[in-house]
Write a structure and sequence with these properties.
Elements (H helix, E strand, L loop, with lengths): L8 H6 L4 H13 L1 H9 L12 E4 L6 E4 L4 E2 L1 H5 L4 H4 L3 E6 L6 E5 H17 L7 E5 L4 H13 L2 E4 L6 H11 L3 E5 L2 E3 L2 E3 L1 H8 L10 E5 L13 E3 H5 L11 E2 L3 E7 L7 E6 L1 H14 L7 E4 L6 H13 L3 E5 L10 H9 L3 E4 L1 H8 L4 H4 L8 E5 L5 H11 L6 E4 L33 E4 L10 E7 L9 E2 L3 H8 L7 E9 L5 E6 L3 E4 L2 E4 H9 L4 E11 L3 E10 L7 H14 L8 E4 L13 H8 L16 H8 L5
Parallel strand pairs: 4-17, 6-7, 6-8, 7-14, 8-11, 11-12, 16-17, 16-18, 18-19, 19-20, 29-30
Antiparallel strand pairs: 1-2, 3-13, 4-5, 9-10, 14-15, 15-23, 21-22, 22-24, 24-25, 26-27, 28-29
Helix pairs in contact: 2-3, 6-7, 8-9, 11-12, 14-16
The structure holds 5'-O-[(S)-butoxy(hydroxy)phosphoryl]adenosine (WT7).
């Protein structure tokens, strides 16, 4: 039996959604999705309100997903213009820098002005509807300005996380065919500088990046950079004298809003494409109801805009709701381990949303750095990105929230656009470690490996049987890959790639990825990408990468490397290989463990048996299962003996 934390009646009394609301609305949302989602579209301002609500086929032979297809709207106008009358002087963004002495804020009116000016800047540089723009910026207000300016003129943004290397950036530029890149001279995180502009320069020397005509540079640190004329332009110079009027482009609900690259089990990262109307209905509605947002809340999501969480729950959801949002450009342990809670006190944050990996890292430092702050303003806590272990959940609840704040453990994915499985804080009794119940309109199911739906309490593979408005529409430039990745495994369903258990109360417990994706600190790393970065070194014959247990990161990266004949594994070579991964992908993909493998366990047809490698990396050598089908079972013995986690 797991712990249960019943809904706090005082919280429920003021909440948007209570228990009976949840039951009633959920039932309607799945029995009459057209009617339900038509009503929900009313939360946005449309140029032409939609009359066609849902038009979806999950048939792998003819797959399409359309929501609100005859409606037109502008996403930026919904995030800004419509608030001006009532909320013009309300704070939209509170910016908190890496340096605790740096903060500033923008009202809705100020943000609107900046966005209009930057939208005009983009237009003057020849950026038009449908063009792609890469955003490679720190967590500064200009990142939100850039995204919203693209949305205003109908350009498709693709934000690339500042921690990605020049090679990764180049891959995304090449795939998107972007015309323009916006970056900063440098980023700074935890007191360290990140050479963003230099990274852009390097990426633009790589093949297939010559679609880029302009690089706009925001001055962030004032560090020295090379400005290559006429390609590179300062943001502040371009913005001078721009008009603050810019008519928002009326976009079709199904026009693309952005692409965001994410790792899968095979190949290079794919451009997840989200569109305008359905995405914004879903992002804003989930944000309002799951965080129970009220007019006077100060909401802080610690995610970087380089990830989907930063898109839906730093920028689009909160701003569409007219909320006040904190944008933080720092890290939890700089200048010290109290930083999160100091920021909470400084800006009187009421709603706080972060990742389990951050909670575990802070938990290791003990209670004192938390307890010396007040945190009285907090009224709700949230987590996202990976399963939260009950121990971390309880610490978050007890130490951070003083047993006063409900915790929403929100399960979702880059592909889903918004949260799918989650508690509603005024309606759902909580169980530490469970993401609990589906949001409105979401129909999860658990299937066995043959795709057979399981009933009642069970475990297996998590699928969603029907569409919701925030769902991704395609893989940019490769619709077949979209179909193959998500709709072929269990025909008629969207396959999440996650395993899950459902308990006797219908609560979902996400158990983690069942494919070759590793979740490191809430970031998705494709094993194939790390393997290809390793074999790029000519001394490497073969590499296999699997996930392993990691106390802080949730999962770590464990690599098995076979060298070409004549090479031997040395500490020096290990460092060289690690540097190679850092260069090709970025620091987040660097293996935690690298084991020299004389050979890899393969079937007679040459397929690497990852199941065995996973068990060895998990230090469970007695649970390897049947190894008799291996071409050479003897390789296993030495891999087990030399394993790095014992
Ligand atoms: C994968 C998606 C969507 C936000 C950040 C990650 C894992 C996400 C939870 C949670 C257990 C979770 C899943 C999912 N995940 N949230 N609350 N409990 N697992 O986005 O990079 O697209 O990764 O993150 O494995 O498939 P992402």
């Amino acid at each position: 039996m797991s712990d249960i934390h019943p809904v706090d009646p005082a919280f429920a009394a003021r909440a948007h959604i209570r228990k009976d609301d949840y039951q009633r609305m959920y039932a309607r949302s799945v029995e009459d999705p057209e009617g339900f989602w038509k009503d929900m579209s009313g939360r946005l301002d449309w140029v032409t309100p939609p009359t066609k609500i849902k038009n979806v086929s999950y048939d792998p032979k003819d797959l399409y997903i359309k929501w609100y297809e005859d409606g037109t709207l502008n996403v930026a106008a919904n995030c800004l213009d419509r608030h001006l009358e009532k909320r013009g002087d309300k704070t939209a963004i509170i910016f908190e820098g890496d340096d605790p002495n740096e903060s500033r804020s923008l009202t809705y009116r100020e943000l609107h002005r900046e966005v209009c000016k930057f939208a005009n800047t983009l237009k003057n540089l020849g950026v038009a509807k449908g063009d792609r723009v890469i955003v490679y910026l720190p967590m500064i207000p200009e990142a939100a300005v850039a995204m919203l300016a693209c949305a205003r003129i109908g350009a498709i943004h693709s934000v690339v996380f500042g921690g990605f290397s020049p090679d990764s950036l180049a891959g995304r530029i090449a795939d998107s065919g972007a015309k323009l890149v916006i970056t900063a001279d440098e980023g700074c995180r935890g007191g360290k500088k990140i050479p963003l502009k230099a990274n852009v320069d390097e990426s633009l020397t790589r093949p297939h990046t010559n679609s880029v005509e302009t690089v706009i540079v925001v001055r962030r640190t004032g560090g020295a950079i090379n400005l290559q004329s006429p390609r590179d332009r300062w943001y502040h110079t371009l913005m001078e004298g721009q008009s603050t009027d810019c008519l928002p482009e009326a976009m079709n609900a199904e026009d693309p809003l952005f692409t965001l690259y994410t790792s899968g089990s095979t190949g290079l990262p794919k451009g997840v494409l989200h569109t305008s109307g359905g995405y914004l209905v879903y992002a804003s509605m989930t944000h309002e109801l799951i965080f129970d947002v009220r007019e006077d809340d100060v909401y802080w999501c610690t995610a970087d805009v380089g990830w989907i969480t930063g898109h839906s729950y730093v920028v689009y959801g909160p701003l569409a709701n007219g909320a006040t949002v904190v944008m933080f450009d720092g890290v939890p342990n700089y200048p010290d381990f109290s930083r999160f809670w100091q920021v909470v006190d400084k800006h009187q944050v009421t709603l706080f949303y972060t990742a389990p990996t951050a909670i575990r890292a802070l938990m290791r430092e003990g209670e004192e750095p938390v307890k010396k702050t007040s945190r009285k303003s907090l009224r709700l806590l949230g987590t996202v990105g990976e399963p939260i272990n009950p121990e971390a959940w309880n610490w978050y609840y007890r130490v951070v929230g003083d047993e006063r704040c409900p915790i929403v453990d929100t399960w979702w994915q880059t592909e889903t656009g918004g949260i799918l499985i989650t508690p509603l804080p005024g309606a759902t009794d909580l169980k530490p470690g469970s993401a609990t119940l589906p949001f409105f309109g979401i129909t999860p199911a658990i299937v066995d490996t043959d795709g057979k739906p399981q009933e009642g309490a069970c475990s297996g593979n998590l699928v969603i049987t029907d569409s919701w408005p925030g769902q991704m529409r395609t893989v940019y430039g490769d619709h077949q890959r979209f179909v193959d990745t998500y709709f072929k495994t269990y025909p008629g369903n969207y396959f999440t790639g996650d395993g899950a258990r459902r308990d006797e109360d219908g609560y979902y417990w996400i158990t983690g990825r069942v494919d070759d994706v590793i979740n490191v600190s809430g970031h998705r790393i494709g094993t194939a990408e790390v393997e290809s970065a390793l074999v790029a070194n000519h001394k490497v014959a073969e590499a296999a990468v699997v996930g392993c247990h990691h106390d802080i990161k949730g999962q770590g990266i464990y690599a098995y490397v076979t060298l070409v004949a004549g090479e031997t594994g040395s500490e020096e070579l290990r460092k060289e290989l690690i540097a190679g991964v850092r260069k090709e992908i970025g620091p987040i993909a660097v293996p935690d463990f690298l084991q020299w493998a004389p050979g890899l366990p393969k079937t007679r047809s040459g397929k690497i048996m990852r199941r065995i490698l996973r068990k060895i990396a998990e230090n469970q050598p007695d649970q390897l299962g049947d190894i008799s089908t291996l071409a050479d079972p003897s390789v296993v013995k030495s891999l087990v003996e030399e394993r790095l986690i014992k």
